[in-house]
Amino acid sequence: xxxxxxxxxxxxxxxxxxxxxxxxxxxxxxxxxxxxxxxxxxxxxxxxxxxxxxxxxxxxxxxxxxxxxxxxxxxxxxxxxxxxxxxxxxxxxxxxxxxxxxxxxxxxxxxxxxxxxxxxxxxxxxxxxxxxxxxxxxxxxxxxxxxxxxxxxxxxxxxxxxxxxxxxxxxxxxxxxxxxxxxxxxxxxxxxxxxxxxxxxxxxxxxxxxxxxxxxxxxxxxxxxxxxxxxxxxxxxxxxxxxxxxxxxxxxxxxxxxxxxxxxxxxxxxxxxxxxxxxxxxxxxxxxxxxxxxxxxxxxxxxxxxxxxxxxxxxxxxxxxxxxxxxxxxxxxxxxxxxxxxxxxxxxxxxxxxxxxxxxxxxxxxxxxxxxxxxxxxxxxxxxxxxxxxxxxxxxxxxxxxxxxxxxxxxxxxxxxxxxxxxxxxxxxxxxxxxxxxxxxxxxxxxxxxxxxxxxxxxxxxxxxxxxxxxxxxxxxx
Length: 478
Ligand code: SF4
Hints:
The protein folds into two domains: 2-87, Double Stranded RNA Binding Domain; 145-468, tm_1862 like domain (pyruvate-formate lyase- activating enzyme, Alpha-Beta Horseshoe). Helix content is 43%, strand content 21%. It has 17 helices and 18 strands. It has a nine-stranded mixed β-sheet with strand order 14-15-13-12-11-10-9-6-16, sandwiched between helices. The longest helix is centred in the middle third of the chain and has 24 residues, at 181-204. The two termini are 47 Å apart.
């Protein structure tokens, strides 16, 4: 699809076009006098003008010019309406293409009123009633938790970039534990060193640790002894007296053993994630998850017996070969297990995922079915006393839908909210981790990146430790 423009607003128009044509290459061409079909013309001259020509379809519309911000939004609105008509698709999130609708809603609510924010979502961005309701409840739940954060607050993120095998939809930087066996021990040792340094910095700066999150990858790919080493360093070196949440993403059920769960428990981890993604064994096989639905249930029951009182389960809507009925079946079984949190993701196929490399693409039926799965999940989870507490979107999501974290009252994951909202500083340790330094009460954020791959992390470890010195400089400035 060619997108012809004569102004600087190509970014939003391009994103908007991608909502309707997720698999097509969109080429932005500025100030051309020749127009090759299929095309979109979006011009700003004495009037705003949008024209779309695709096959037999031709439609155009005019509007008055006002100012830059409104002209950009208006061009998007004109294009959105034509593309809805052309494709017979009405995106549930309307014209919102950004990743954080809740943040946008909160900003509107704080700068105008709640009813004006609602009106803007409905009449200017064309967000459906279902998604507006989801946004409003999430915003309220999040807000209470964001307000608990103080100027000294920070969270700690620990990255374990190893997995037992690679799922076909995965786009994370991670290595299979088998192939990286020789790297694991040195990695664990250096990660402990980095944690000690981070703890020293936090103590020097009088920062207050609020939440700890160990994610990946799959942290439970490590042995019980390796987990114990890392978690003991956290407990010994950081001041844990204000810590309100300690999560380990156990992730893949096939990596969970009693020894590892005891190791987590002994190290004061209270919240874990056990992620089935689906309870349909055929779908698990189709996406390269080398575990079964039965293993998920066993791991879940084991965790309960060992005494975990806060368990999250991740599901993905829109997985290849999954159907609406099979998704409903998965969700019903998960609700019967009664976990404290259920996170419902929408499949997002990034360029680096095996699925993309294999030529899998998203078609309109996938989008429609995935939307049905999410609507079912929303309805059922509300019915069963789960409340949405965080919500975000990613690029290349099926149907341009959303990921939502649901929890029973009082079991919201604080870390998830803080990281998504960018409420306070996150100190990141491990390969691929990013330290985000937040100037409290503003939107200002500075990032310090660790090396992505475990071998780089190990080879250039001292360089990374050096970078952590920048945390002192940041706090000295603000
Ligand atoms: S478990 Fe998660 S991080 Fe690991 S390969 Fe699968 S999707 Fe990727």
